[in-house]
């Protein structure tokens, strides 16, 4: 009886030892399941934040191809009436383009900030991480709008604050839904975007061909003039 007990104990110890030598979590998870290191997430967030700051406050100092004129962004204006752009233009395309751009611009920021908060040593709960993204997204957008106005570096608009914050919280929700499996993807996409943006800035105006630039506003004005002439009454002989 004692010999059989020893055999059973030895078998149990061997089984326990083999399981302890190779943790099942590590075998199942592998490298792809590990969280990205905090320093890499922080670099990704800083890289994308630099892109955001450059495209919102620093367009008066650099160009990418012929996408904009630096002189046009030496401007100071303040709009505190919500959705005033739609009321003034009377069309849906320009406001939709502006609102959608501000919204999409902050989605990656919300994704990366959520990943940073969830991967920190004092990991925030998913709900708390989303709430913090809302607060930080609104604060970051507010600081951008204030700096644009103070230093005459763009157009400060209450709509920008709203849609930027909405984009940030949407990004946090997206990161929450997709879960940790995609954290590596979000981080490397942000790093890649930062590198591509730096290359585009370095190339600067060499990317554009001035002979192919078309003034769409002039075309629109010409079309309106033609419509006015067509609608004008024909004088009687």
Short structural summary:
The chain is 68% helix and 3% strand. By secondary structure, it is mainly α.
Annotate the secondary structure layout.
Layout: H1 2-21, H2 24-29, H3 38-57, E1 76-79, H4 84-89, H5 93-119, H6 126-150, E2 154-157, H7 158-178, H8 183-203, H9 216-231
Parallel strand pairs: 1-2
Helix pairs in contact: 3-5, 3-8, 5-6, 5-7, 5-8, 6-7
Characterization of this structure:
The protein contains nine helices and two strands. It has 237 residues and is mainly alpha-helical. It has a domain of 144 residues. A two-stranded parallel sheet has the order 1-2. It is globular. It starts with a helix and ends in a 6-residue tail after the last helix. The relative contact order is 0.14.
Percentage of helical residues? 55-70%
Gyration radius over CA: 28 Å
The overall pLDDT average reads 78
Number of H- or I-type helical stretches? 9
- Structural class call reads mainly alpha
- What shape does the CA trace take? globular
Taking the sheet with the most strands, its summary is: 2 strands, parallel
